[in-house]
Amino acid sequence: MKAYYSTAYGGPEVAHYGDYPDPEIKDNQLLIEVKAVSINPVDYKVKRGSVRFLSGSKFPRIYGSDFAGVVKKVGSRVTKFKAGDKVYGVTPVIWGKSGALAQLLALDEKYALAFPEGMSFDEAASLPIAALTASNGLRRCGVGNGTKVLINGGTGGVGHFAIQFARAWGAHITVTCSNENAELAKKLGAHETMGYTREAFLTANKQFDAILDAYGHMEFADIKLLLKRGGTYASTMVKPFLFFTSLFIKLTYGIKLTSSNIRSNPEDVKQMEDLFREKKLVPVIGNYFTLETSGEAFKLAEFGKPRGKIIVRV
Q: In whole angstroms, what is the distance from residue 57 CA to residue 40 CA?
């Protein structure tokens, strides 16, 4: 098969496109013909070795977590799927496991989800990590009917889904974004937009019940300025010693800090798929790449400012 793989941790200098051994499935696995993969921040972080204590040291290896495709073959103990079924999900790329940027993927049955009717391969691949991270972050912030929420980085992968979940839950939504993306943010459901600079925060003269930092880099001084006492701030960026920091901040300033990580309980997936069917959760896909040009997709994800999701078509 063809694959985009790395021979060591690092950037494009250790990445290659070419022939790679076909995977062999175990009794509890599916062999999936991959059709689409989305690139998330977690993918380039793992690829560069930022979490190598979790991702192991086995090389060569394939990266890419979110995928969509068609089941080609099933193991003897698989009960939920058969050859020809459309599936999507997240393949774990820790402990040296192989990712999805290849023509074929061997995956444990438990990680596969059946395709909702009317969903394309591109849309399916765009959803799991970003959408389920967005919904969990809003949930941890207590966002609901009437909540005044600020979504920082509202037109990126996580942010554009967060706007749509917050809208479905009845929140009043303000989004930070560039001027050129303000129209998109409002189309997705934002009531107001504002800049993402310190000056914009100061001149806005607003405070919020909750902040979801989809970009992940807000300064604490800005959080204090924009978040009401008793409010919650959630970040997609992993913060070291978050528990102890959050406890100190809550006692000192009366605000809560928490993380916005993926949660994929069955009820979360059902809610995501239901909103998709109701056309209340619409993936925005700003850029498409081929498997051969996956390196450009990683470059855009890490160093560019993509709108919505980045999709690699296999």
A: 21
User: Whole domain around residue 213: which residue ranges?
Assistant: 130-259
Q: Parallel, antiparallel, or unpaired for β 104-108 and 227-235?
A: unpaired
Contact 99, 36 (CB under 8 A): no
Contact 175, 190 (CB under 8 A): yes
Residue 298 lies in a domain: yes
Pairing of strands 148-152, 208-213: parallel
Q: How many domains does the chain have?
A: 2
- Gyration radius of the chain's alpha carbons: 20
The DSSP call for residue 21 is P
Q: Please, which residues have CB within 8 angstroms of residue 40's CB and are 6 or more apart in sequence?
A: 65, 66, 129, 130, 157, 301
- Shared domain for 287 and 207, answered yes or no, is no
Q: What are φ and ψ of residue 38, in 5° steps? A: -105, 150
Contact 9, 1 (CB under 8 A): no
Predicted structure pTM score: 0.94
Per the domain annotation, does 36 fall within a domain? yes
- What DSSP character marks residue 185? H
Find out whether 29 and 106 touch, Cβ atoms under 8 Å. yes
Q: Break the chain down into helix, strand, coil percent, rounded to 5.
A: 35, 30, 35
Question: Are residues 140 and 62 both part of a single domain?
Answer: no
> pLDDT tens digits, residue range 168-208?
999 999 999 999 999 999 999 999 999 988 899 988 889 99
- What span, in angstroms and rounded, lies between the C-alpha atoms of 87 and 127? 12
Q: What are the pLDDT digits (tens) for 136-174?
A: 999 999 999 999 999 999 999 999 999 999 999 999 999
